[in-house]
Amino acid sequence: MSPRPKKMRRCEGSFCGRAFKPTGTPLNELTPIALHRDELEALRLCDVEGLTQEEAGLRMGVSRGTVQRIITGARKKTATALTEGQALVFIDSES
């Protein structure tokens, strides 16, 4: 039995460059943490726009549970990058 195909996720926001990193250290000297477009979109919708996970799921075309899973991972990646001085590298694909 093969896994269920991944549902297409609608993302309205855009990246503010290709990475977010600490100042003064070249990107190639930092540990990269991949932040996918759907993870940034979930952060934007829930933490910036203040939508509930249910509302964010409707906007993204996925379930509330999927938004919860996406945002949990995105918050962990973001917190790790900020506290450990690593780089968030924005990935356009969802793979």
UniProtKB/TrEMBL annotation:
Family: Belongs to the UPF0251 family.
Coiled coil (UniProt feature): none
Top-level taxon: Bacteria
InterPro entries: RNA_pol_sigma_r3/r4-like, UPF0251, WH-like_DNA-bd_sf
Protein name in UniProt: UPF0251 protein DPPLL_10420
